[in-house]
Specification:
single chain; Rossmann fold; five-stranded parallel sheet; 7 strands; globular
Length: about 280
Amino acid sequence: MTLRLPSGLLALALLAGCATAPTTPAPAADDNLNAVAWSQTAIEHDLIYLQTFRDAQSQLLAALADPARDALAATDRVTPLAGLPPAVVLDIDETVLDNSPYAARLVRSGKEYDEPSWQAWCREESARALPGAVAFTRFAASHGIAVIYISNRSRDLDQATLANLRKVGLPVSGPEAFLGLGTEVPGCTAQGEDKSCRRRQVARHYRVLMQFGDQLGDFADLPAGAARTAALAPYLAWIGTRWFVLPNATYGAWESDLFHDDWHAPRAQRRRMKIDGLRY
Protein backbone atom coordinates (compact mmCIF):
# COMPACT_ATOMS: atom_id res chain seq x y z
CA MET A 1 0.00 0.00 0.00
CA THR A 2 1.30 3.46 -0.90
CA LEU A 3 0.87 6.16 1.73
CA ARG A 4 -0.15 9.49 0.21
CA LEU A 5 0.30 12.65 2.36
CA PRO A 6 -1.83 15.75 1.82
CA SER A 7 0.13 18.36 -0.10
CA GLY A 8 0.51 20.62 3.00
CA LEU A 9 1.94 17.84 5.13
CA LEU A 10 4.24 16.80 2.28
CA ALA A 11 5.66 20.32 2.13
CA LEU A 12 6.24 20.38 5.89
CA ALA A 13 7.99 17.00 5.71
CA LEU A 14 10.30 18.25 2.95
CA LEU A 15 11.13 21.37 4.96
CA ALA A 16 11.87 19.29 8.04
CA GLY A 17 14.19 17.08 6.00
CA CYS A 18 16.07 20.12 4.75
CA ALA A 19 16.40 21.49 8.28
CA THR A 20 18.09 18.31 9.51
CA ALA A 21 20.35 17.74 6.49
CA PRO A 22 24.05 17.30 7.34
CA THR A 23 26.02 20.54 7.27
CA THR A 24 29.54 19.09 7.40
CA PRO A 25 31.80 21.41 5.39
CA ALA A 26 33.61 20.07 2.36
CA PRO A 27 37.23 19.05 3.02
CA ALA A 28 39.85 21.73 2.53
CA ALA A 29 41.84 21.59 -0.66
CA ASP A 30 44.84 20.18 1.18
CA ASP A 31 43.05 18.16 3.86
CA ASN A 32 45.65 16.23 5.88
CA LEU A 33 43.18 13.70 7.29
CA ASN A 34 44.72 10.44 6.09
CA ALA A 35 48.26 11.48 7.03
CA VAL A 36 47.22 12.53 10.53
CA ALA A 37 45.04 9.44 11.01
CA TRP A 38 47.96 7.21 9.99
CA SER A 39 50.29 9.01 12.38
CA GLN A 40 47.88 8.55 15.29
CA THR A 41 46.27 5.17 14.70
CA ALA A 42 48.50 2.97 12.52
CA ILE A 43 50.52 0.53 14.60
CA GLU A 44 52.99 0.49 11.71
CA HIS A 45 53.81 4.14 12.44
CA ASP A 46 54.81 3.37 16.03
CA LEU A 47 56.70 0.23 15.02
CA ILE A 48 58.84 2.19 12.55
CA TYR A 49 59.91 4.54 15.34
CA LEU A 50 60.54 1.67 17.75
CA GLN A 51 62.51 -0.24 15.13
CA THR A 52 64.63 2.80 14.25
CA PHE A 53 65.58 3.72 17.80
CA ARG A 54 66.24 0.09 18.76
CA ASP A 55 68.47 -0.36 15.73
CA ALA A 56 70.38 2.81 16.60
CA GLN A 57 70.81 1.69 20.20
CA SER A 58 72.23 -1.66 19.09
CA GLN A 59 74.96 0.22 17.19
CA LEU A 60 75.66 3.01 19.65
CA LEU A 61 78.37 1.46 21.80
CA ALA A 62 80.37 0.38 18.74
CA ALA A 63 80.10 3.96 17.43
CA LEU A 64 81.27 5.25 20.82
CA ALA A 65 84.33 2.99 20.68
CA ASP A 66 85.36 4.25 17.23
CA PRO A 67 87.40 7.46 17.69
CA ALA A 68 86.99 8.34 14.00
CA ARG A 69 83.22 8.07 14.06
CA ASP A 70 81.43 11.31 13.13
CA ALA A 71 77.90 11.83 11.82
CA LEU A 72 78.31 15.45 10.73
CA ALA A 73 78.65 16.37 7.08
CA ALA A 74 82.07 17.74 6.13
CA THR A 75 80.62 21.25 5.82
CA ASP A 76 79.51 21.12 9.47
CA ARG A 77 82.64 19.55 10.96
CA VAL A 78 84.54 22.74 11.86
CA THR A 79 86.69 21.30 14.67
CA PRO A 80 88.98 18.22 14.67
CA LEU A 81 87.47 15.18 16.36
CA ALA A 82 90.42 14.34 18.59
CA GLY A 83 89.60 14.69 22.27
CA LEU A 84 86.00 15.76 21.83
CA PRO A 85 83.35 14.08 24.02
CA PRO A 86 80.57 12.11 22.26
CA ALA A 87 77.03 13.28 21.52
CA VAL A 88 73.92 12.32 19.61
CA VAL A 89 71.88 15.02 17.89
CA LEU A 90 68.11 14.79 17.52
CA ASP A 91 65.41 16.95 15.99
CA ILE A 92 62.39 17.39 18.27
CA ASP A 93 59.10 17.63 16.35
CA GLU A 94 57.99 14.31 14.83
CA THR A 95 61.36 12.87 15.86
CA VAL A 96 61.10 12.64 19.66
CA LEU A 97 57.83 14.54 20.28
CA ASP A 98 54.49 13.79 18.60
CA ASN A 99 52.54 16.89 17.52
CA SER A 100 49.78 15.02 15.70
CA PRO A 101 47.07 16.41 18.04
CA TYR A 102 47.89 19.89 16.74
CA ALA A 103 47.63 18.62 13.15
CA ALA A 104 44.34 16.90 14.04
CA ARG A 105 42.92 20.20 15.29
CA LEU A 106 43.79 21.84 11.97
CA VAL A 107 42.03 19.04 10.08
CA ARG A 108 38.92 19.38 12.24
CA SER A 109 38.79 23.17 11.90
CA GLY A 110 39.74 23.29 8.22
CA LYS A 111 42.51 25.76 9.04
CA GLU A 112 46.18 25.83 8.13
CA TYR A 113 49.30 26.07 10.29
CA ASP A 114 49.90 29.49 11.79
CA GLU A 115 52.46 30.57 14.36
CA PRO A 116 50.02 31.67 17.14
CA SER A 117 48.14 28.36 17.19
CA TRP A 118 51.41 26.41 16.98
CA GLN A 119 52.89 28.35 19.89
CA ALA A 120 49.73 27.79 21.92
CA TRP A 121 50.01 24.04 21.30
CA CYS A 122 53.68 23.97 22.30
CA ARG A 123 52.91 25.88 25.50
CA GLU A 124 50.46 23.14 26.49
CA GLU A 125 53.54 20.92 26.97
CA SER A 126 51.38 17.89 26.18
CA ALA A 127 53.12 16.26 23.20
CA ARG A 128 53.82 12.57 23.84
CA ALA A 129 57.23 10.98 23.34
CA LEU A 130 57.46 8.96 20.16
CA PRO A 131 58.05 5.23 20.62
CA GLY A 132 61.65 4.27 21.36
CA ALA A 133 62.92 7.83 21.80
CA VAL A 134 63.02 7.81 25.61
CA ALA A 135 64.74 4.43 25.86
CA PHE A 136 67.37 5.36 23.27
CA THR A 137 68.22 8.78 24.68
CA ARG A 138 68.38 7.47 28.25
CA PHE A 139 70.68 4.67 27.10
CA ALA A 140 72.94 7.24 25.42
CA ALA A 141 73.00 9.48 28.50
CA SER A 142 73.76 6.53 30.79
CA HIS A 143 76.93 5.87 28.75
CA GLY A 144 78.20 9.44 28.99
CA ILE A 145 76.91 10.51 25.58
CA ALA A 146 75.47 14.03 25.48
CA VAL A 147 71.92 14.29 24.11
CA ILE A 148 71.53 17.47 22.04
CA TYR A 149 68.23 18.66 20.54
CA ILE A 150 68.36 20.96 17.50
CA SER A 151 64.90 22.25 16.71
CA ASN A 152 63.28 24.95 14.59
CA ARG A 153 60.98 25.84 17.44
CA SER A 154 61.50 29.53 18.17
CA ARG A 155 63.67 30.48 21.12
CA ASP A 156 60.72 31.91 23.05
CA LEU A 157 59.40 28.35 23.28
CA ASP A 158 62.54 27.05 24.94
CA GLN A 159 61.13 26.74 28.47
CA ALA A 160 57.91 25.06 27.31
CA THR A 161 59.91 22.73 25.07
CA LEU A 162 62.37 21.73 27.78
CA ALA A 163 59.47 21.16 30.17
CA ASN A 164 57.68 18.92 27.66
CA LEU A 165 60.87 16.92 27.02
CA ARG A 166 61.35 16.38 30.74
CA LYS A 167 57.68 15.49 31.33
CA VAL A 168 57.86 12.55 28.94
CA GLY A 169 61.18 11.33 30.38
CA LEU A 170 63.61 12.50 27.70
CA PRO A 171 67.00 13.42 29.23
CA VAL A 172 67.78 17.15 29.28
CA SER A 173 71.12 18.15 30.77
CA GLY A 174 70.23 21.86 30.78
CA PRO A 175 69.25 24.76 28.51
CA GLU A 176 72.38 24.24 26.42
CA ALA A 177 70.94 20.89 25.30
CA PHE A 178 68.27 22.71 23.25
CA LEU A 179 69.36 24.78 20.25
CA GLY A 180 66.20 26.42 18.93
CA LEU A 181 65.58 28.66 15.96
CA GLY A 182 67.33 31.98 16.47
CA THR A 183 70.23 30.55 18.46
CA GLU A 184 73.13 32.88 17.84
CA VAL A 185 76.33 31.20 16.66
CA PRO A 186 79.32 33.57 16.49
CA GLY A 187 80.82 33.82 13.02
CA CYS A 188 78.02 31.89 11.34
CA THR A 189 74.90 33.09 9.56
CA ALA A 190 72.09 30.70 8.59
CA GLN A 191 69.25 31.30 6.15
CA GLY A 192 65.70 30.76 7.40
CA GLU A 193 65.34 27.44 9.20
CA ASP A 194 68.73 26.10 8.10
CA LYS A 195 70.31 24.21 11.02
CA SER A 196 73.90 24.26 9.74
CA CYS A 197 75.12 26.96 12.14
CA ARG A 198 73.73 25.11 15.12
CA ARG A 199 75.31 21.85 13.96
CA ARG A 200 78.63 23.71 13.68
CA GLN A 201 78.14 24.96 17.21
CA VAL A 202 77.75 21.35 18.36
CA ALA A 203 80.81 20.38 16.29
CA ARG A 204 82.96 22.78 18.30
CA HIS A 205 82.26 20.84 21.47
CA TYR A 206 81.33 17.26 20.49
CA ARG A 207 82.05 14.29 18.30
CA VAL A 208 78.60 13.44 16.92
CA LEU A 209 77.94 9.70 16.77
CA MET A 210 74.44 9.79 15.27
CA GLN A 211 71.80 12.21 14.02
CA PHE A 212 68.02 11.72 14.00
CA GLY A 213 65.31 13.63 12.15
CA ASP A 214 62.23 13.56 9.95
CA GLN A 215 63.55 16.04 7.35
CA LEU A 216 66.80 15.94 5.39
CA GLY A 217 67.51 19.43 6.71
CA ASP A 218 67.90 17.85 10.14
CA PHE A 219 71.10 16.17 8.92
CA ALA A 220 72.80 18.55 6.49
CA ASP A 221 72.20 21.66 4.44
CA LEU A 222 71.05 20.14 1.15
CA PRO A 223 69.57 21.92 -1.89
CA ALA A 224 65.86 21.79 -2.65
CA GLY A 225 64.16 19.90 -5.46
CA ALA A 226 65.85 17.51 -7.87
CA ALA A 227 69.36 18.62 -6.88
CA ARG A 228 68.82 17.17 -3.43
CA THR A 229 69.08 13.58 -4.69
CA ALA A 230 72.55 14.16 -6.11
CA ALA A 231 73.71 16.04 -3.02
CA LEU A 232 72.51 13.19 -0.81
CA ALA A 233 74.38 10.50 -2.75
CA PRO A 234 77.65 10.71 -0.73
CA TYR A 235 75.71 10.10 2.48
CA LEU A 236 73.55 7.15 1.45
CA ALA A 237 75.88 4.74 3.26
CA TRP A 238 75.21 6.69 6.47
CA ILE A 239 71.47 6.00 6.39
CA GLY A 240 70.72 3.58 9.20
CA THR A 241 74.24 3.85 10.64
CA ARG A 242 74.97 7.54 11.31
CA TRP A 243 71.76 9.16 10.04
CA PHE A 244 68.39 7.77 11.16
CA VAL A 245 65.43 9.13 9.18
CA LEU A 246 61.91 8.95 10.64
CA PRO A 247 58.59 9.20 8.75
CA ASN A 248 56.49 12.35 8.56
CA ALA A 249 53.59 12.32 6.11
CA THR A 250 51.90 15.41 7.57
CA TYR A 251 54.33 18.21 6.61
CA GLY A 252 57.84 18.89 5.41
CA ALA A 253 60.02 20.14 2.59
CA TRP A 254 58.76 17.28 0.40
CA GLU A 255 55.37 19.06 0.33
CA SER A 256 56.55 22.62 -0.27
CA ASP A 257 58.90 21.44 -3.02
CA LEU A 258 55.83 20.41 -4.99
CA PHE A 259 54.58 24.02 -5.16
CA HIS A 260 58.02 25.68 -5.24
CA ASP A 261 57.71 26.81 -1.61
CA ASP A 262 55.10 29.40 -2.62
CA TRP A 263 53.01 29.49 0.56
CA HIS A 264 51.34 32.68 -0.65
CA ALA A 265 49.61 30.77 -3.44
CA PRO A 266 45.92 29.94 -2.76
CA ARG A 267 45.31 26.53 -1.24
CA ALA A 268 43.50 25.28 -4.34
CA GLN A 269 46.46 26.29 -6.51
CA ARG A 270 48.91 24.53 -4.22
CA ARG A 271 46.73 21.42 -4.39
CA ARG A 272 46.71 21.57 -8.19
CA MET A 273 50.50 21.78 -8.26
CA LYS A 274 50.80 18.82 -5.89
CA ILE A 275 48.53 16.77 -8.13
CA ASP A 276 50.60 17.77 -11.14
CA GLY A 277 53.70 16.57 -9.32
CA LEU A 278 52.44 13.00 -8.89
CA ARG A 279 53.46 10.04 -11.08
CA TYR A 280 50.64 8.51 -13.16
